[in-house]
Amino acid sequence: MVEGDGSTGTAPEVAEVWDEWREAVTMTPAALERWLTTDESRSVGDTHGDGESTGHASGRRIVEILRSNKTDLTADDAAHMRKVVGYVHRHLAQRPDGDVTETPWRWSLMNWGHDPLG
Question: pTM for this one?
Answer without folding.
Answer: 0.88
